[in-house]
Amino acid sequence: MKDLAFLTSPDMSKAEVVTNHVVIAEYAGIERKSVRRLINNHKNDFENFGRLRFEITTLPDSRGQKVKIYQLNRNQAMLMITYLDNTEVVRNFKIALVKRFDEMEKELYARKIARAVEKQKGVTLHQSISEWEHYPRHGNTWHTIIRSLLATTVTGLTKKQIQARDTDWRKEKTLLDLLNSKEMERYKMLESIAIAMIEAGSDYEPLKVAIKATMTTKKVHTDQSKDF
Q: Helices (H) and strands (E) in the chain — how many of each?
């Protein structure tokens, strides 16, 4: 059921995953006008989860006449399901729709990351953090948090352990000053991932998970290569 949900725009910075009332009617086994009536009758409810958008277009069976098709985001679509009879067809449709939204949202996120990677040339980590949509939450502290995350991940050490292994450590030295060449190479790789995710609007926790997972995967591949 790959046609259950789709992107609203080819522009990844503006795209959103949605379905529409025509799809819901078809797969839930009810008339389109019934779905439209539900949307019109509960418009305020739907708008609790975002602007209720629509497009005017023709359908294969509309005989060339343009019709109004409501687009529903994930939450609006789930709300719509609650208004339908809990038949087996509707239950199966809901399961399929949730799965499709999950697939499309993951795909959209991956595309945003890919686009951010393409655009990040010339963008520094400092710049991307400073312009991050989540920057106001911790302000300048984000710079320390993220750089510490990268440094501790590539070394496998805590911040204090990194500082302790350098006999000439002074307060004016940054963690980057204490990394060896191999660690610095890995740091740069993770830095590019961090920039891409920040540019894509990721929050900190997903970024942290991705950074940790990248080094774990790299370590596994390295260990396996030693066995041959």
A: 11, 4
pTM tops 0.85, yes or no = no
Distance CA 69, CA 54 (A): 5
Specify the DSSP element, H or E, that contains 96: helix 88-119
Q: How far is CA 5 from CA 12, 67, 203, 210, in A?
A: 16, 19, 24, 26
Say if CB 22 and CB 29 are below 8 A apart: no
Place of tokens 């790959």: 2
Among 12-21, 150-159, 214-223, top mean pLDDT goes to: 150-159
Whether the pLDDT of residue 219 is over 70: the answer is no
Closest CA to 195 of 152, 146, 148: 146
Helix (H) or strand (E) holding 57: strand 53-58
Write a three-state SS string for 122-133: CCCHHHHHHCCC
